[in-house]
Write a structure and sequence with these properties.
elongated; eleven-stranded mixed beta sheet; 31 helices; alpha+beta
């Protein structure tokens, strides 16, 4: 046992590492995914994440039944949903369109919706007056409570009175400020927090005021249309990926479980999409884990083989004394069990100590531990089937490939090719459970590539060796000759090295591909360095923003999400449809794109368009199909009708949503009249200005627009929003299960790198005996220590270099082969950037070769010192050199 103590300890360490990887890694990944799920649900708009039942309130029925209605609706939900409801609200209110207010003292008309809602007293803090208590008697006013913002904008205070359609007199009895304006209670009542102020003639003041049941009933009984809402919000902290399928099913069923109406909202769709992204991340992690586990398993087998090789003489002596093969296997098993089993338990406990949700992976650890326990006994029994006391020449024996081994190698290649075909056909995440075989496809491909490489390398190495024989010195000839002969015998260590390198490069390749796709998505959303958005800006705002320090160029843009486009400007002309109409200055936008260094291009005809004829427009394919071959159109842009002609089509346009049905018009070709300028609502910026300075300039530009139309009304609605490219890029980093991706990258890259160096060490140890004998003989012929090290480097350099290159090439080939199945576009906003690899990885590959050779040199030096090579020939036995 002393002779193989080092290998036994290594077996234990590898088993413990496997335990942490198998048990701990999925726990961490599950924890990251669960947290991402909760953050995703929390960040959804209330229209999506809330289960909302809304309908007209029945005539001649009191609204006092709303609390019971809320409980009754909750009772019909499936238990998986009902038990995870965190907040719920009932609301009943008069329709804003029919709630006209008079005698308000305001300069314009006003509409005030009267609303009763649960949770009002918990969501607000009374700062003046009292809560409403409307009397159900004629002549008494409806009592309401308002927010401080309403008091300021509408010029109201406690005691103010006015009239509302159907409700008669209304009196303000209290002012209550929100405890948390971002709380869910306020989602459906934004006009209470920020009442609308008219910006143009003919507009009205809009607000929501809170009352009690009696107040709403009075308007309801008077015939004012009244609406009820039942709103339920899931407790995000009670969600995880384990219960997500049941929750999705329950939410889907809730659509048709309304007592009087169907549910509004698309939470089930949002959760399903997140689940798809999570399964894609799970699949990627499974591929990385499979590669890392395969590398660990290969190292275990190599350690077992090395241990048996070092004890070959001992085992042969036992066989000569009558020991059976099974006896030797049992003896070896008794030595392995006390080391491997405790190591497996330690790895299991360490994995359980990792944060996150447990995963059902204990079976994998049991199988790995079983393999680690049996590796050494089985190897010993297979080696001793034929009793031999002569030394082995593994370098020569390995070159003879039998039919069984050749069949196994061909089968490995066939399995790899079949796996790629299956992955591309059905995907890694076709089901909730990851297919182990399909996740192991990269391992099969890497192992197959290693076998092919090792079968092909002896011939060119032999040729180079013969050429080296004609030169002075024996180092090159001897090293290359041994490298060519030992290549087939080194298939185990080299295959493990190729798999480790493949896992590392694959992880880095996926990382580079996803990063490049996110860059493209950010370019599409923010085609410059920043986008300045607002209600409307003065027509000369782009020029004004050039004065902001750091701004290199600016382009104006007008985006009208739903604009009617007709066949012509003639009255009664056929309507083609309502599209996302955008007007942008082509030359200035092209300049912004160039100055910002974005990988985007505008059609040259769009940039070169000039006034004097109908402006050419760029259409999305969906809009072009609705034109049905017609080439002319007309649309109203801020009060003036312009004629257009179709100039071309494009799938996307910078700065617009990917799913937009757009029509983009070159601003410079419109021939805009000086007395009818077009006011932009976006400004594209290139440069590195201060965001606060941009926002200030945008606010000034909006105020200049307001002044130009003769309605000097300001307020929060005119606040400018600045969105930078870096912000959009960071948002893409935070979306979905990005944390799982980063974790998978780290496991694959760092784990693969460490195991690759360990594989190089095994490659050295596998041939250390034969090299020791050669060095011992060559030392008697005058070979120096330095020349001995050079001989080792010349022998290993071709194998290590070819193994690193093979693993790198397979790793680079995997993203395009498996990318569609992995669903990488889930993390890039739908953009496929192809295979992108950081140039530093190429340098890293060279560095890895050098690190591998240095590792080999260090291991060989330590091994030779222990063997005391100078004594080997004197004692007449290589075994005598071991202590």
């Amino acid at each position: 046992m002393r002779a193989s103590l080092g290998q036994l300890v290594l077996l234990g360490l590898l088993t413990a590492v496997a335990g942490v990887l198998v048990i701990g890694t999925p726990r961490i990944a599950n924890g990251i995914t669960d947290e991402a799920l909760r953050d995703h649900v929390t960040s959804l708009p209330y229209q999506v994440k809330d289960l909302n039942y809304r309908g007209g309130f029945p005539v001649n029925r009191s609204t006092r039944t709303m609390p019971n209605r809320l409980d009754a609706q909750t009772a019909v939900f499936y238990p998986d949903l009902r038990g995870r409801i965190g907040e719920s609200w009932w609301t009943v209110y008069t329709e804003l369109e029919e709630s006209w207010a008079t005698d308000t003292g305001l300069p314009s008309k006003a509409r005030f919706s009267l609303r009763a809602a649960s949770g009002l007293e918990q969501a607000t803090r009374l700062v003046d007056g009292r809560w409403p208590a409307t009397l159900d008697e004629p002549g008494f006013p409806v009592e309401v409570v308002i927010t401080p913002a309403e008091a300021t904008v509408l010029h109201l205070k406690v005691g103010s009175r006015f009239n509302v359609t159907g409700a008669g007199g209304v009196q303000v009895v209290g002012i209550a400020e929100p405890v948390d304006p971002a709380a869910g209670f306020w989602d459906t009542a934004p006009l209470a927090l920020k009442p609308y102020q008219p910006r143009d003639d003919g507009e009205t003041f809009l607000a929501v005021m809170f009352t009690d049941f009696s107040g709403v009933d009075r308007a309801h009984y008077a015939g004012v249309p009244t609406t009820f809402e039942l709103r339920y919000r899931l407790a995000a902290q009670q969600l995880d990926m384990a219960v997500l399928p049941k929750v999705v099913s329950a939410v889907y069923a809730a659509h048709s479980q309304g007592l009087d109406t169907r549910m509004e909202g698309s939470l089930d769709t949002a959760l399903t999409r997140f689940a798809e992204a999570a399964h894609a991340g799970q699949s990627l992690l499974a591929v990385v884990q499979a590669g890392t586990l395969a590398t660990l398993a290969g190292l275990v087998l190599l350690a077992a083989r090395l241990a048996v090789s070092r004890r070959r003489g001992e085992f042969a002596l036992l066989r000569a004394r009558g020991g059976a093969v099974l006896t030797i296997g049992g003896r070896t098993l008794a030595e392995v069990l006390p080391v491997v089993l405790p190591a497996a338990v330690v790895g299991w406990l360490a994995g359980l100590a990792m944060p996150g949700r447990a995963a059902d992976t204990s079976t994998v650890l049991v199988l790995f531990a079983l393999m680690a326990v049996l590796a050494m006994p089985v190897t010993a029994m297979l080696t001793l089937r034929r009793l031999s006391f002569s030394g082995e020449r593994e370098d020569l024996a390995g070159s003879r490939v039998g039919a069984r081994r050749r069949t196994a190698e061909v089968s490995l290649l066939v399995l790899g090719a079949l796996g790629v075909w299956l992955v591309r056909r059905r995907g890694l995440n076709a089901t909730a459970d990851v297919d182990v075989f399909l996740a192991a496809v990269p391992v099969l491909l890497a192992a197959g590539a290693a076998v092919l490489t090792l079968r092909a390398i002896p011939a060119p190495l032999g040729l180079v060796s013969r050429l080296a024989a004609r030169t002075r010195g024996a180092i090159g000839f001897l090293g290359l000759a041994r490298s060519g002969r030992t290549a087939p015998a080194a298939v185990g260590p080299i295959a493990v090295l190729v798999v480790a390198i493949c896992t590392t490069v694959f992880s880095l390749g996926v990382s580079g591909t996803v990063d490049a796709g996110r860059d493209q998505a950010a370019d599409q959303a923010v085609p410059g360095d920043a986008t300045v958005s607002g209600f409307f800006f003065a027509h000369d705002s782009a020029d004004a923003l050039l004065a902001v320090p750091g701004v290199r160029s600016a382009a104006p843009m007008l985006a009208q999400p739903s604009t009617t486009v007709n066949l012509s400007r003639q009255p009664g002309a056929e309507q083609i449809g309502k599209f996302y109409v955008v007007v942008v200055d082509g030359p200035r936008m092209a300049q912004v794109i160039r100055d910002a260094g974005r990988d985007l291009a505008l059609p040259q005809w769009f940039v070169d368009a000039q006034p004097g004829q109908p402006a050419p427009v760029l259409l999305s394919p969906e809009v072009a199909a609705k034109f049905k071959g017609r080439t002319t159109a007309a649309a109203d842009l801020q009060g003036r009708v312009y004629d257009f002609t179709v100039g071309g089509t494009a799938d996307r346009f910078p700065g617009l949503p990917d799913d937009a049905q757009f029509m983009v018009i070159p601003w410079q070709a419109l021939g805009v009249r000086a007395d009818k300028p077009i006011a932009p609502n976006r400004l594209l910026i290139a440069g590195a200005p201060d965001a606060a300075a941009l926002a200030k300039a945008g606010d000034d530009a909006q105020l200049r627009w307001v002044t130009s139309i003769g309605t000097p009304v300001g307020g929060a609605d005119l606040t400018t929003t600045v969105t930078t490219w870096a912000q959009r890029r960071a948002e893409l980093e935070r979306t979905g299960v990005n944390g799982v991706l980063t974790f998978a990258y780290g496991v694959g890259a760092l784990g693969g790198l460490a195991l690759a160096l360990l594989a190089v060490a095994f490659a050295v140890l596998a041939g250390a005996r034969a090299r020791g004998q050669v060095l011992s003989r060559l030392r008697t012929m005058g070979l120096s220590r330095g020349q001995g090290r050079s001989l080792l480097l010349v022998e290993l350099a071709p194998l290590v270099t070819v193994a690193v290159l093979t693993g790198a090439l397979v790793g680079l080939a995997l993203p395009p082969l498996l990318g569609p199945a992995l669903g990488l576009t889930t993390y890039t906003g739908g953009y496929d950037a192809g295979v992108r690899l950081d140039p530093a990885v190429v340098g890293g590959a060279v560095g890895l070769v050098l690190a591998g050779l240095l590792t080999a040199l260090l291991v060989e030096t330590l091994f030779n010192r222990r063997l005391r090579l100078g004594e080997v020939l004197r004692l007449g036995s290589f075994e005598a050199g071991e202590s």
